[in-house]
Amino acid sequence: MTRLIFLGPPGAGKGTQAQILAEHLHIPHISTGEILRQAMKEQTPLGIKAQSYVDSGDLVPDQLVQDLVEERLGQPDAKSGWILDGFPRKVTQAAFLEALLETTGQGGERVVNLDAPDDVVVTRLLSRGRKDDTEEVIRRRLEVYRNETAPLIDYYGDRQKLLTINGDQSPEAVTHELKETLVS
Length: 184
Hints:
Layout: E1 2-7, H1 14-25, E2 29-31, H2 32-41, H3 45-55, H4 62-73, E3 81-85, H5 91-103, E4 110-115, H6 118-128, H7 135-149, H8 151-158, E5 162-166, H9 171-183
Parallel strand pairs: 1-3, 1-4, 2-3, 4-5
Helix pairs in contact: 1-9, 2-3, 6-7
């Protein structure tokens, strides 16, 4: 059973690669970013709360995201495996997820770190043309990532669950490397 967590800075290709791999493995790609964007678009209570954080380049508070993730991992299609993209973002969230997976019998997860340099990420994100992707907001998101999310690399490395992939190559090359490493 495949349970993968994708880490990496915004714009490293996590969503693209998670979607390709999820289709290949016939498991759901669970993107907290997409779930949150949909909630913001629909102006749900969670979406309205999340919008103010996103607009300033800050992370959405842990409790909102944890509730969302717990609910999603409990859905029937996630029982056969999943790829989690956008969560955890901090060590406290990783500890929450580890405890959740243990209590629900979904342990054995592996962690993929897609690494890419800041300048590459800024260029990629600006080319997407999303209204929340200004250079100032992107650089702020990268600063938040480095401060809060990067420690997860050590957290999962210490637990021997981490695989680092170079995200600064063609999407096809990244996909090939992921399939070679994780699927074979």
